[in-house]
Amino acid sequence: MTVIRQNDLINSIADACQYISYYHSLDFIQAMNDAYEREESIAAKDAIAQILVNSRLCAEGHRPICQDTGIVVVFLKIGMSLRWEGEASLQEMIDEGVRRAYTDADNPLRASVVSDPDGARKNTGDNTPAVIHSELVPGNTLEITLAAKGGGSENKAKFAILNPSDSVVDWVLDTVSTLGAGWCPPGILSIGIGGTPEKAMLLAKEGMMEPVNIQALKSRGPHTTTETLRLELFDKVNALGIGAQGLGGLTTVLDIKVNDYPTHAASKPVALIPNCAATRHIHFTLDGSGQATFPVPKLEDWPQIALTGKENARHVNLDTVTKSDIAQWLPGETLLLTGKLLTGRDAAHKRMVELLSKGEDLPDSVNLNGRFIYYVGPVDAVRNEAVGPAGPTTATRMDKFTDIILEKTGLIGMIGKAERGNKAIESIKRHGAVYLIATGGAAYLVSKAIRSAKVIAFPELGMEAIHEFVVEDMPVTVAVDTKGNSVHKTGPAEWQARIGGIPITTQ
Questions:
Q1: Is the same domain home to 241 and 367?
Q2: 41, 249, 311, 430: most buried by Cβ count inside 10 Å?
Q3: In total, how many domains does the chain have?
């Protein structure tokens, strides 16, 4: 009889969490490189290049691909003939593995899980608990599929119960058109159809961890309804022109996954979950012989890509830049930022707005007048790093704070990822400010431009504390200019029109 020992499971979970934090799977790298080779949009091609270069740097340096190292989701298929050796519960064993991984001194991972989700939202400090789904199956092995799912893509999950005669294709296309770029395309869209509401969501979540294989399916042709649907959606979603980071381009998705389950005759539950450009998942099996081991990829598996565009970029001194300077910046223009930059995301913005609304001053250390703020919650530094991976978070979550911050503090610029909402854009225009984007999914690459970092306010907020960064040649793109023009509106519109006249070919 197979015996699964407690420490073997704990150590396997810990090693798996570490492994996927810095290694993309080879199928994903190859699909992303194919998209890079095919891409015709200059802005999208540059974004994909940054993602690929970042991926190689992370593989070399064993540091996280993205600063959002996710919430751990584990699917277990437990052989009914195996036996457990240990005193802890299944939840306790997996949580201990997660705890060890996320507090690893050599590669600490950002703790993002908060308890009391509708109340205090206190960070648990070690990214536990994990979310676990288990199934008893015939056999004597333990099959484990583990993912670390980032908030930006997870927040874009959608669900609906359609009428039986409604079109899944129409619903998906309408839905994807509303997602924006917060899920960091290009990535994978996974769809679950049927069962009950919770079953459809689980189908979608499991599907996103399948290998990228749409090109193989194209080559052999579909054999089932779900395979036919995958191919139709793959072409039609890419034809939306959303492109990498929502900048407009040929590739929005690298693959479409569709899984279904029998459902009630009156129902058609449909779930959609995106997986971002920092996709992290792994599948392994424990058979009683010890803990899992994971193959070390070869660096030559990564494409050799040189970043371009710096020679034509505008150099900006953040310590001297003025409102008249930023008024000259053009949508889609590449900037290289040098100087002092403050950080702040949801919790810090909430704290600042509470103070301002009560007529109180911000802490003396937080002077936003004429400054830029970066929406980021960085990973802790190790060794000689100034800061750990520090990629942007989704800016739309800060939209409700934007007007009061711009009005009361004199802030002139914001940096994040994805689009801004209409009200935020109107506020940016009214105050003569700008919004810039850094590439989501390129967190370690971004951190290379940060020369020093220190916490200057709200240290009790952990990774959401306000930092002061000193940056040198940090690459960003003008997303909303002082006149309110947004590349996230113009870029996809342009490329959707262009794709209408471009045959959709194999990536």
A1: no
A2: 249
A3: 3
What pLDDT, on the 0 to 100 scale, is given for residue 322? Answer: 97
Regarding whether 125 and 35 lie in a shared domain, the answer is yes
Q: How far apart are CA 58 and CA 52, in angstroms?
A: 10
Q: In terms of domains, do 7 and 133 share one?
A: yes
Q: How far is CA 103 from CA 41, 68, 347, in A?
A: 40, 15, 22
Same domain flag for 140 and 173:
no
Q: Is the pLDDT of residue 116 over 50?
A: yes
Domain co-membership, 26 together with 143: yes
How much is the pTM? 0.92
Which helix H or strand E contains 27, and what residues bound it? helix 26-38
Q: Are residues 80 and 158 in the same domain?
A: no
Give domain status of residue 501, yes or no: no
DSSP designation for 51: H
- Give the C-alpha distances (Å, rounded to integers) separating 259 from 136, 203, 252, 315: 20, 6, 20, 48
Residue 307: its pLDDT value, please?
A: 82
- Tens of pLDDT, residues 301-339: 999 988 876 778 999 999 999 999 999 999 999 999 999
Q: Average pLDDT in the 466-483 region?
A: 97
| Phi-psi domain of 441 (left: phi exceeds 0; alpha: psi -120 through 50; beta: other) | left
Instruction: Note down the domain range covering 429.
Output: 310-492
Model pLDDT, residue 506? 42
Measured CA to CA, the distance from residue 346 to residue 394 in angstroms comes to: 10
pLDDT at 1: 81
**Claim to verify: residue 73 and residue 86 sit in the same structural domain:** yes
